[in-house]
């Protein structure tokens, strides 16, 4: 397994994203769970909430007592604890700023590889299987029917602002922080579990700065055409800068946002 990542400021004046990779699938660190943790945190209104998540989230998933596969109750409790900590201890920066959270944990049970995936916000996880792109998560946008119904049931209203639909000042309907937009903007994630198989070549975790200007298949094709090699040794040599190249490609196609990406090759 090979991990590569990049985080580019792009055309934005500041960098508000953070990513996280803890590769312990082979169990080299005996103090942590034998799993691989991958995450992308896309901040808005500043970088402090995304930085907080990067610094705080790992122990909940790497602890030796954490049981896999993860239960929905456990994941929701973890996300509640993190949001409560922002509310109670960091209200100074989490009241009007926030962050998405796309978190994946790769683990094995009886020789089979699985992915537990948690998503809050509009970052996205895409799997390349048999050279075809498969979205593993769904974006949380205010105008999407399920999100629109949830917001309106709480008494909120979405509005069109130029090219974006917004709830308050946000074009994303789920995020950590953003206490001024509660309860319409929620930190509660979608939670998934996938069984992976030998047809799977790689998984891409990316913020919306990547996906807004490239389709899921565009991203997979770019990696397949420029970097992919089934021989991991060759892949390591060929693809050492592939995360950066992919982020640069998104910017060349028109992205004006920060671009953060993590690629996991099998």
Would you mind describing this structure in some detail?
This protein has helices at residues 48-56, 58-62, 72-89, 91-94, 145-153, 208-211, 216-226, 232-238, 242-252; strands spanning 2-8, 17-23, 36-44, 98-99, 101-109, 112-120, 124-129, 132-135, 158-161, 164-167, 176-177, 190-195, 200-206, 259-265. It has 266 residues and is an alpha+beta fold. The chain has one domain (2-138, 187-265): PPM-type phosphatase domain (Phosphatase 2c, domain 1, 4-Layer Sandwich). The strands form three sheets. Strands 2, 3, 4, 5, 6, 11 and 12 form a seven-stranded antiparallel sheet that branches. The model has no long low-confidence stretch (mean pLDDT 94).
At a glance:
With 266 residues, this protein is an alpha+beta fold.
Features:
266 residues; alpha+beta; Phosphatase 2c, domain 1; 7-stranded antiparallel beta sheet; 5-stranded antiparallel beta sheet; 14 strands; globular
């Amino acid at each position: 397994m090979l991990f590569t990542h990049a985080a580019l400021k792009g055309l934005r004046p500041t960098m508000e994203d953070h990513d996280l990779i803890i590769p312990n699938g082979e169990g080299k660190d005996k103090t942590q769970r034998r799993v691989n943790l991958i995450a992308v945190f896309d901040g808005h209104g500043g970088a402090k909430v995304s930085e907080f998540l990067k610094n705080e989230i790992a122990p909940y998933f790497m602890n030796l007592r954490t049981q896999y596969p993860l239960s929905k109750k456990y994941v929701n409790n973890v996300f509640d604890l993190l949001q409560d900590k922002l509310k109670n201890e960091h209200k100074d920066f989490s009241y009007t700023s926030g962050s998405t959270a796309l978190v994946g944990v790769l683990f094995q049970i009886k020789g089979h590889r699985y992915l537990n995936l948690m998503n809050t916000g509009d970052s996205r996880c895409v799997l390349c299987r048999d050279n075809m792109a498969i979205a593993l998560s769904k974006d949380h946008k205010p105008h999407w029917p399920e999100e629109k119904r949830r917001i309106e049931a709480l008494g909120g209203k979405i509005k069109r602002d130029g090219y974006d639909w917004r709830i308050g000042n946000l074009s994303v309907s789920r995020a950590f922080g953003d206490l001024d937009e509660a309860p319409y903007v929620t930190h509660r994630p979608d939670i998934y579990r996938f069984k992976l198989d030998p047809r799977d070549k790689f998984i891409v975790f990316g913020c919306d700065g990547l996906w807004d200007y490239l389709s899921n298949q565009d991203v997979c094709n770019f990696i397949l055409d420029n970097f992919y090699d089934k021989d991991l040794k060759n892949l390591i040599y060929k693809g050492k800068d592939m995360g950066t190249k992919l982020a640069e490609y998104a910017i060349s196609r028109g992205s004006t946002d920060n671009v953060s990406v993590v690629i996991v090759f099998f």
